[in-house]
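Question:
Write out your own:
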Amino acid sequence: MSLPRVLSIQSHTVHGYVGNKSAVFPLQLLGFEVDPINSVQFSNHTGYAGGFRGEVLQGAQLTALVDGLHSNGLLEGYACVLTGYIGSASFLHAVLDVLRRLRAASPEVAYFCDPVMGDGGKLYVPAELLAIYRDQVVPLAAVLTPNGYEAELLTGRSILSEAEARSACEALHERGPHTVVITSIALPGRDDELLMLASRRDGAASRQWALRLPRLRQDFTGTGDLTAALLLAWMQRLPRAEQLGEVLERVGASLQAVLAHTQAAGRSEICLIQSQAELREPVVSHRAEPLPQAAGGS
């Protein structure tokens, strides 16, 4: 039996779990063949006190890798493309070319875009990437998975309430993606809660769900990359619009289990290997709340 194929274009670290190291293993556990391409290759993630070493790949390097796949007839048959952290404008422009080539070979390929640009009010990619994401990348995406700060950057709007988060999703739908999941929103006055908000545009209206999870007082790395991968996996398994709330619940349950294992180990690098059972079969304890249907428009 052939398994669905995913092309995952993200960062790589020798040590720890971010980017492709955070996404490939969970996708494989959930039944996907994954071909990873690394957008950067670093010794470790950039938050270490001793710094990091490595290289940021440029567009020509991505093009060369894809040319190699093409020359061997390997560009056909991808079900999905997943992109995460990208460190240079030339590489992001090359991603656009890759998408066009993939869709020429497989018109139904779905593009899951995690627009990794920053968090907590801090931009950690070159500022020039924002306009490329906003104007060129987002319109090509079927599914967009920004965090709250990235959703603010892409829409030019503040998100200080659930209503503003819902409105931001509508604005992003207007750019092209049929599904938007804002993966983590810390709202004022709700210090113990993180909000995940999922929105599916179907015709002239959108269906939206909110999942509220306990907020842990610890910083973790790789959680956004893991979230995007799990959303891809469960949306492929549960593809109907009305199942998006269930997708959100399963993703949230796996994330909670991974973070529980990570805290128990006294780590900030997420514990994926220790969480295999919960990645395969998440035990849902927090339910997604369906929100009143929103009319289309921003």
Residues 155 and 168 are 7 Å apart (CA to CA). The mean pLDDT is 95.
